[in-house]
Each structure stands twice: as structure tokens, then as C-alpha cells.
From TrEMBL:
GO function terms (MF aspect): phosphatidic acid transfer activity
The keyword Disulfide bond belongs to this UniProt entry's keyword annotation: yes
This protein's name: Mitochondrial distribution and morphology protein 35
Organism the protein comes from: Kuraishia capsulata CBS 1993
Any single biological process term in GO: phospholipid translocation
UniProt similarity note: Belongs to the TRIAP1/MDM35 family.
Superkingdom per UniProt: Eukaryota
Keyword tags: Disulfide bond
Length: 137
């Protein structure tokens, strides 16, 4: 059995694309080198999941988000999970991305609506509208 046929993704999109693509993978007498398998898996993962997960709300902010995501994923897997660092080393990149999103929320007229929703039902109150939470007192 080909090793590639056993690969599965947790996401529905990944699973659908994997099954279709793996059955079309050229092979010779069911032998595939591990290097080819790893390269194909990396490309498949990037195509099916990377682009979907890395898109930003504002297209102009996608490069900043990608930088942050790459930095965070590296820090999380290589340092945090191994107990080497508790401090997120990517905070500056997060701030850069957050500022970009803020600018585009304003440009698209979404920021005032978010501010109003937050004042009507603040996160600190569990998202419950203020009128409701005050009437329960």
C-alpha cells in the first residue's frame, strides 16, 4: 500500500482534496521514496490549508499576518511547547498586523459598528447586553 494513501487531514477541505490528489499521484509498482512523500505532503498541506488559513480580513494585511503566523508557529512549536520560552517573541509582529487591520476596519466602515457592539455588550460582561445584565442585578 502506498504511504501517501494513508495521509489524512483533519479539515474537510483537506480530506477531500487529499483523497482526490493522492489517487492521481504517479508511482511505480507502489514504491515511492520517503523524500518524495515528504515533499508532496508539504506542498499538499500548503495548498489545501496554508492559503486558506493565512488570508487576512483585509488583503493588504495578509503579508503582515503571514509574518506573524510564521513567527508564532515557530515560537510555539520550537520554544513554548519545549519549555524554552514563555514569552511570545512575535508580539511586535502581532501589533503590526493588528494596526493594519484597525486601519482597514476604519476604511471599510466596520470599526464604528464594532465599537457600538462592544459598548452594548462588552466582553467583560460575557457578551451579554448591558440592559440585560443590569436588569438581573
Amino acid at each position: 500500500m502506498i504511504l501517501l494513501q494513508t495521509l489524512r487531514f483533519n479539515t474537510k477541505l483537506g480530506r477531500d482534496n487529499t483523497n482526490k490528489t493522492l489517487s492521481n499521484l504517479p508511482h511505480q509498482q507502489n514504491h515511492i521514496s520517503l523524500a518524495l512523500t515528504n515533499q508532496y505532503y508539504a506542498k499538499l498541506t500548503q495548498k489545501t490549508m496554508g492559503n486558506i488559513l493565512s488570508a487576512s480580513f483585509a488583503e493588504e494585511c495578509t503579508p503582515a499576518k503571514q509574518k506573524y503566523d510564521d513567527c508564532f508557529n515557530h515560537w510555539y512549536s520550537e520554544k513554548f511547547l519545549k519549555g524554552k520560552s514563555m514569552e511570545n517573541e512575535c508580539e511586535d509582529l502581532w501589533v503590526e498586523y493588528q494596526q493594519c487591520v484597525e486601519v482597514h476596519l476604519i476604511k471599510k466602515g466596520i470599526k464604528p459598528m464594532l465599537d457600538e457592539a462592544r459598548s452594548d455588550a462588552p466582553f467583560e460582561k460575557g457578551g451579554v447586553p448591558l440592559a440585560e445584565s443590569e436588569s438581573k442585578k
